[in-house]
Predict the 3D structure of the following.
Amino acid sequence: MTAPDNGPSVRDKLTAADLKTLFLFEALDDKQLAWLADRGRVEVRPGGKPVYVQGEDATCFFVLLGGTVAMVRRLHGDDIELTRTDQKGVYAGATQAYLGDRVDQAYTSTLQAITDVELFVLPADEFGHAVRTWFPMALHLLEGLFFGTRASNTIIGERERLVALGSLTAGLTHELNNPAAAAVRATDTLRDRVTKMRHKLALIADGRVDGTRLHHLVEMQDEAVKRASNAPKLSAIEASDAEDDVTDWLEDHEIDRAWDIAPVLVAGGLDPAWLSQATDSLGGENRQAAVGWLTYTIDTELLMGEIEDAVNRISGLVDAARQYSQLDRAAQQPVDVHELLDATLVMMRAKIPSAVRVVKEYDRDLPPVPAYGAELNQVWTNLIDNALGAMNGSGTLTIVTWREGDHLYVEVRDTGSGIPADIRPRIFEPFFTTKQVGEGTGLGLDISHRIVVNKHHGDIRVTSQPGDTRFRVCLPITRAPDDAGPADEGA
């Protein structure tokens, strides 16, 4: 093992009696304890230095005697703290030495000394020999469990990732398809309108309109564009009344296809008074061409607005996907939980039935919290997905945020059938599920619990009765440097 700076300070050895006080060795007989005491040693490592580093050859097995350590794993260039503890007797290091060369004997994470720590250190080959020699039956069971679990986890994990990716991709492509199709339709219509505008311009500029009137027509066009960009939103009744007025004006002035162009002029904010003011100076013989020119101008402006809106929606969906995955962000950083929740809702929009009403009650004054954004999004996804499943296609999904002291709360509520009292204590257990066989692995709430409790030092609880189930997630707003997480008896 590569020794860090200010390397280990070796004290004396432990006695068999000392080893028997550690929960890992308490069931061993005196001969076995003496064998370990003879081959192990006690080391003191300084705080702020690694005991061992991820990726190095796993040469030693470590048992904590005193001090505080943290288990850290490097993922995509970021150091992620898995757990932190000061519990005497917890162990780490070459925990798979008994498997020999059948697995890669390297440290899978970094053990960081937070304070000065005292460790019982046993060489990996000695530890492996002891396990193989003293516990042959247990060794066979451990081997079967290790290799069998690894194989099944690989198969299940790949399947779950494919299912999740397929669901996410289907939802995202569905959401992207609508604005993309709208942009394509608007572009096709715009091309047709521009072609007709060129023909109309030829009619206007063929010599029958003098320069002064042509200049006035261009000014009129500019004014129409401004009115279109600031046109008020009309209700269905208001729009119908306005179209009737414009249609009457067009018919009174013998404009062809009045019923067809009136909706376009109204959508652009043009009314009979403005049309009269804009076209009277052109003369009756030019009014038909002028109104047609204005109609195409307004129509093209509205179509460009549709294209802009569609592109903005696509951009918003892409941004939501990036926010959801957190691919362009550091693993842990201050995050706005509302942005994460909104991104999750966008990504899950295709899974939310039309009969489910989504209510957001956000406290917008909440500060950012230090968190792993992508993993919190996984929590929100699991909670929302479970809520949707409980409501069976209809109901109200409510997401509430608030602050109490130094903690931020996110609550996901649903009006579904509720969680029976007899299974409520088990919902956070690995692989526990109420779904039918083949509908899930039962990992969602277990993973959510580990992310919230182990990774963020928070809490997740549930209260439930028919018509009102609430999953409440508590996250610390600030995290003290020496804040110890839950003890982990095996790293």
About this structure: The longest strand covers residues 395-404.
